[in-house]
Amino acid sequence: MGIVGEAHKVRVLGAGEKTIVLGHGFGTDQSVWKHLVPYLVNEYRVVLYDNMGAGSTNPEYFDFDRYSSLEGYAYDLIAILEELQINCCVYLGHSLSSMTGVVASIFRPDLFSKLILVSASPRFINTDDYYGGFESEEIEQLCQAMESNYKAWISGFAPLVVSGDMDSVAVQEFSRTLFNMRPDIALSVFRTVFTFDLRHFLSRVTVPCHIIQSSMDMSLPVSVSEYLHRNLGGKSIVEIMSTEGHLPHLSAPEATIPVLLRHIAHDITADGDA
């Protein structure tokens, strides 16, 4: 493993002809894919990595300027693919990493055969003509709560995002990986995620996109998936699952994994089916 691979804790499993790259969202690490990976390794080459800033990475490597926009994450993803000499892959990204894949595919469309975007949003803050789910004041209040008592913030934030109580395994797992992040890094990443606006990028995306989300997600209105579908430059398809929460692959794997496997295996056809 090279320098980039070591920094991002890259793991390569399986030995199939097709390569699947899995990117995790804010507050998690590659362990969030633990329910999906066993279904992939017999058929695909599977690449897992941690975003810089995740609790499993060296906090000294986190560059606050580089990761103040998604371009920094996109360049990391491209560097990982280049170091592993991956010429083309299926990229499955969750939340932050779904949009990282979108940006990376604009820079290097040749590296991606398709993007599978789970709980993806180009912008979380509402505007006069766009409903992202949050007012800017709400985001600022969440940031202030993170600064004042990070541990207490996690105990309130994790159940809301996962859509479960503190006793649920998924909420406990999300709380664990959130707690592993250094609080100042978590705050920086949180600000980046909840204040970016990638709407102007969407028309430049030419790689086919499979857009998947829960029907009930306090972080993400269903209308955002439809917005992505209408505004992406290439072919896209939307599937709304009857699951709850922003991390359905962690909280409802029995419902989510079959959907993900279907979208990995099947491409978007001319009539829009996958």
Automatic annotation (TrEMBL):
UniProt GO BP: response to karrikin
Cleavable signal peptide: none
One Pfam family it belongs to: Abhydrolase_6
Entry's family note: Belongs to the AB hydrolase superfamily.
Domain AB hydrolase-1: 20-257
Transmembrane portions of the chain: none
Ribonucleoprotein among keywords: no
Keyword Hydrolase: yes
Coiled-coil zones: none
GO molecular function: hydrolase activity
Protein name: Esterase D14L
Alphabetically ordered keywords of this record: Hydrolase
Alphabetical list of InterPro entries matching this protein: AB_hydrolase_1 (IPR000073), AB_hydrolase_fold (IPR029058)
